[in-house]
Write a structure and sequence with these properties.
There is one protein chain. By secondary structure, the protein is α/β, with parallel strands linked by helices. It folds into 2 domains: 324 residues, Alpha-Beta Complex (Adenylosuccinate Synthetase, Chain A, domain 3); 100 residues, Orthogonal Bundle (Adenylosuccinate Synthetase, subunit A, domain 2). It contains 11 helices and 19 strands. α3 crosses α4, α3 packs parallel to α5 and α5 packs antiparallel against α6. The two termini are 25 Å apart. Bound molecules: inosinic acid. The site of inosinic acid has 21 residues, from α4. Inosinic acid binds next to α4.
Length: 438
């Protein structure tokens, strides 16, 4: 009765969607446990007319498999308009999207246009030099929705069981948000009655999907089925363990999976940490191994391919740099990662040398672990180990033996420096482009 947990070991965008898709083949249910439509999971499925690309923001990516039940857990914040649109898109691709297949936790929280407006107003206000700088949020209302949740005035999905009551609560919520928008941010107010009417109609559409998802998942696990917890974002964006304040407002780490699904840790199975073989980040905040100029462009790609390093949700170019093992060891520790999945090994082909950050230095001190956690990385300079690169294109590799010898050495070196085995390596965006690491 295992609950396998997939977490991002970096700042999100590690390629978790691909791995979730692969492991979903053996799972009965795949559950998102944190975040909202700030996430963007790309899954490429081989189809008769050429590869079919799914970009999912709220629905678990495992739903691409017809046998999987997708769960949106307690810990999520859900924008109903975006959820309905995403359901329609998935349906249009031929998938069945019914209450039997999609279960929305009654305890998840709803995002409204007022949360989105507050997020955008707050970001704009932070850009002022005296205000501490922008977070670089996705502008999807995530922070304000979690703020309302922790302030105990949030709109839980269960309100959709009573559309009239939801309408009243939304009216009251938008009116309160309007005071902040107008008086603090000097922004125009929203039409509270129109938003309330909109949410009443969403309630009618989504009420059939509401479920006691903890009970459902518990039942499946007790019956011996495998459930996959699909992480969004990454360890370094976690509200507790991330590079605060440049973080999201939820807990995308393995601990967040238990809280966000309403399950106890006795079910834990594999804890799978997904990391690219290099480092990327969108939004603001420290990034010790960040590369610039041609080196960064080489890792980022041009944007011609959907899997190049441009945000799935916002289209922003991602900041790119070398793999940081200080941060990876930290992610392994705080999540209890039992195995690593390496993604995008193919991108490194053609580089004369590949680099790994094995430690940091500050003044005359060397560090292999972060002395104070990752919040203030600014004082540290990375210490690199260089290894010979490889020229051969590895995107066609399907077994370890197909990989160039130097690429295999690079993978083994990551294992040696982290003490955690690598189970899978991705060498391209398609389902088949996966290499077992043993
Ligand atoms: P928010 O989650 O929209 O509040 O954004 C907070 C920070 O998390 C920003 O730096 C975002 O760029 C980052 N972020 C949020 N979701 C993702 C994601 O799915 N991938 C990468 N970065 C993300």
């Amino acid at each position: 009765m295992p609950l396998h947990i997939i977490v991002g070991a970096q700042w999100g965008d590690e390629g978790k969607g691909r791995i979730t898709d692969l492991l979903s083949a053996d799972a009965v249910a795949v559950a998102r446990f944190s975040g909202g439509d700030n996430a963007g999971h790309t899954v490429t499925v081989d189809a008769p007319g050429g590869p079919q690309i799914f970009k999912l923001h709220l629905l678990p990516s495992g739903l691409v498999h017809p046998h999987v039940v997708g769960v949106l857990g307690h810990g999520m914040v859900v924008n109903p308009s975006r959820l309905l649109a995403e359901m329609d898109r998935l349906r249009a691709s031929g998938a069945s999207v019914t209450p039997e297949r999609v279960k929305l936790s009654a305890a998840a929280h709803l995002i409204t246009p007022a949360h989105v407006a507050l997020d955008q107003a707050d970001e704009a206000a932070r850009s002022a030099p005296s205000a501490g700088g922008k977070i670089g949020t996705t502008g999807r209302g995530i922070g304000p929705a979690y703020t309302d949740k922790t302030a105990r005035r949030g709109l839980r999905a269960e309100l959709m069981l009573d559309p009239a009551r939801l309408g009243d609560r939304v009216l009251e919520h938008v009116r309160a948000a309007n005071l902040t928008l107008e008086r603090i941010y000097a922004r125009p107010p929203l039409d509270a009655a129109a938003v309330a009417a909109e949410y009443t109609s969403y309630a009618r559409a989504l009420a059939p999907y509401l479920a006691e998802t903890s009970l459902y998942l518990h039942g499946q696990l007790r019956a011996g089925a495998a459930v996959l917890a699909e992480g969004a974002q990454g360890t370094l964006l976690d509200l507790n363990t991330g590079t605060y304040p440049f973080v999201t407002s939820s807990s995308p780490t393995s601990g967040g999976a238990f809280v966000g699904l309403g399950l106890g840790p006795q079910f834990a199975g594999r804890i799978i940490g997904v990391t690219k073989v290099f480092q990327t980040r969108v939004g603001e905040g420290p990034f010790p191994t960040e590369a610039f100029g041609p080196e960064a462009e080489r890792l980022r790609g041009t944007g011609a391919n959907p899997w190049d390093e441009f945000g799935t949700t916002t289209g922003r170019p991602r900041r790119c740099g070398w793999l940081d093992l200080v941060l990876l060891r930290y992610a392994i520790r705080v999540n209890g990662i039992t195995e690593l999945v390496l993604t995008k090994l193919d991108v490194l082909a053609g580089l004369e040398q590949v680099r790994l950050c094995t430690g940091y230095e500050a003044g005359d001190q060397r560090y292999e672990e972060l002395p104070w956690g990752p919040a203030d990385l600014a004082p540290f300079r990375p210490i690199y180990e260089s290894m010979p690169g490889w020229a051969e294109d590895s995107s066609g590799a399907r077994t370890l033996a197909d990989l160039p010898a130097q690429a295999r050495c690079y993978v083994r070196r990551i294992e040696a420096l982290t003490g955690v085995p690598v189970s899978l390596i991705s060498v391209g965006p398609e389902r088949s482009q996966i290499v077992p690491a043993r």
